[in-house]
Prior knowledge:
Helix content is 27%, strand content 27%. The radius of gyration is 23 Å and the shape is globular. It contains nine helices and 19 strands.
Amino acid sequence: MKKIVCLALCTGMLFQSALALPEMGALNAKSAALYAAGGQELYSYQADEPLQPASVTKIMTMLLAMEALERGDVTLDTMITGSEYACSMGGTQIWLEPGEQLSLDEMLKAIAVGSANDCAVAVAEHLAGTEAAFVERMNQRASELGCTNTQFINANGLDGMGQKTITTAHDLALISCELLRHPKILEYTGIWMDSIRGGKFALANTNKMLKSYQGLTGLKTGYISEAGFCISASAEREGLGLVAVVMAAPTKEARMADATALLNYGFANFTAYTPPSDALAPVPVTLGKADFVQPVMEGGETLVIEKAKAAELETRLDLPETLAAPVEAGQKIGELTVLSGGETVLTVPLTAAESVEAKGLRDLFSSFWSELLGSPE
């Protein structure tokens, strides 16, 4: 069933649009979803059905690694040691030896390109102490992103002892969109062939769409017999970024065909739209340590609009004349409405780009005396 809405849990957007888009056509997979990279849901097919993601699980492992990099907890040169447990994973791997060390850079390459189960666990252990602790972080982060039907059991997507990672196409799309907020990851997911260990171990990307689909940037494939063939595929053309998630396709060929159909549908029917640069003027703040706060669109600077409605777009702002301090970063302060021919296409929350603390008594006293003793004109 077609679903043309904007994601409320992740971006808070409301998509109000007539369902005038052409039909997608039949898919092979049990479940699928198409999202704009900023978080707008453009199409879904049984996207809330709980299924196994196999190695697409690693998009969350990579997300937590990229967030750790941005916090400065690790660098790409940080050496990661393979434990006996990590080296025992089996499945797709680079055959880490217990005690062997590789840089985080090489570990990420092995995970993104070669889908290395052993490296995924080694990185998890380094970042959280144990894989179990890392899995807690995975599930907590999934919850923060609005994933309501996801339960990770490990860092790589393999079945456990009587346990299985369960998620949905909807949830995987949310995680994928969040991962794309870290563009550095595309330097790994977009690799076709490379090597590690000083050129001694070759890697070939499991995502064969990199060679067959124009604009593809990643992200991750997955397969185990219980899960079928899965993929979260990201692509960009003419400023429009998309994520296509396919779960439980019967064959590799069907997985690729479905992902291709989803992306083609997105590029054929939607376009990127950036409101005028002067639309979001700073809002004055009263009694704050800063005089203004900058409003930003929740979900990013670019919106995704149906091509059929993109010819006569206008925007309307609903912002207060002033805000009273304190203001928290991410706090909703207004709305931006996009209209086409007088019809509301979508309404996007506007949030504060930064926090503004309220002035304390000392600040107020200092401001008072500055005003009182200021030089006369």
